[in-house]
Amino acid sequence: MRTLSDKITLNLDGDAKVSIKAFIAPIEYTQYNFHVEWDALANLQAAEPEKQYSASIFRVFLPSEPVSVRECWEIEEDVLELLRQLHPNPRLDLHINNGDSLGLWACLRAYNDEVADIMFRIHAEFAIESGRFTPSQFAGHLVIDRIKEEIIFFQMHVPNGTLNFDVYWDTVGSDIGYCPQMELRTSTLPDDAEFTASITEEKAEHALMSCFYKFQQINWVSLEEALEIAPAQQKPIHAVSLDGPLFDESC
Q1: How far apart are CA 47 and CA 84, in angstroms?
Q2: 141 forms bridges with which residues in the sheet?
Q3: What are phi and psi of 42, to 5 degrees?
Q4: Spatial separation of the C-alpha atoms in residues 141 and 156, rounded to whole Å
């Protein structure tokens, strides 16, 4: 019987072909109306709506050594080739060069003898005319047929949220907004599989988030719990008010 600590090796047949579709929906909202007044933002669209790749490019998402469920590893920077299907000028060095939110990480979420499900998170931005466009994050899934060493499903997208990107216009300043779809994916959707070892998507997302933000490694408790614990441990409570999330690049 497999356990979460068991390690598996992942590989892909580099000669196989994978067709990827790209989508960028019209931006629906920006706080200061940049998506209406700035042509580069108003006309933002996928550079190549559909493109065929050799499966070898997707090896950048695979670990170089055997891994176990919940284990995370860094993704290779060659992933920029895929991001260019969305926009010709992607970059991994974000304008907020604080060394904390940079990077590309993947996590083995689940597997059985036939299939493996990898989740990943990438922080990148695009240099657009007269400015830059910084999505909150790119989240994704890579599902692999372990026997045939082929890709069953791939998706890389900017998650939905009240706000899911930050943008900077050189002549005006910064803004935040919402784009309903920015995505790369295959057309095939995977069937539900029964895994011999797995964690929930929520746990995999948290493991990935912890690779980017050290504060996510803290054992947080609710305010109600803190109000009970503080008197017993004779410790103060520090309250912080924020106007945006700390766990992505949307603000």
Answers
A1: 7
A2: 119, 155
A3: -65, -30
A4: 7
- For residue range 42-75, list pLDDT tens digits in order: 999 999 999 999 999 999 999 999 999 999 999 9
Identify which of 164, 117, 114, 163 has the alpha carbon closest to the alpha carbon of residue 140.
117
- CA proximity to 60, closest of 18, 12, 128, 113: 12
| Residue 139 CB neighbours (<10 A) | 19
Is the C-alpha dihedral spanning 240, 242, 247, 251 positive or negative? negative
Neighbours of 136 (CB within 10 A): 23
Beta bridge partners of 182: 24
Q: Give tens-digit pLDDT for 222-245.
A: 778 888 888 888 888 876 666 555
What ranges make up the beta strands (E) of the chain? 17-24, 29-30, 50-54, 72-74, 90-91, 104-111, 115-122, 125-128, 131-135, 138-145, 150-157, 165-169, 173-178, 182-185, 197-198
- Residue ranges of alpha helices (H) inside the chain are 34-37, 39-42, 80-83, 201-212, 223-233
Q: Which region, left, alpha or beta, applies to residue 85 given φ > 0 means left and ψ of -120 to 50 means alpha?
A: alpha
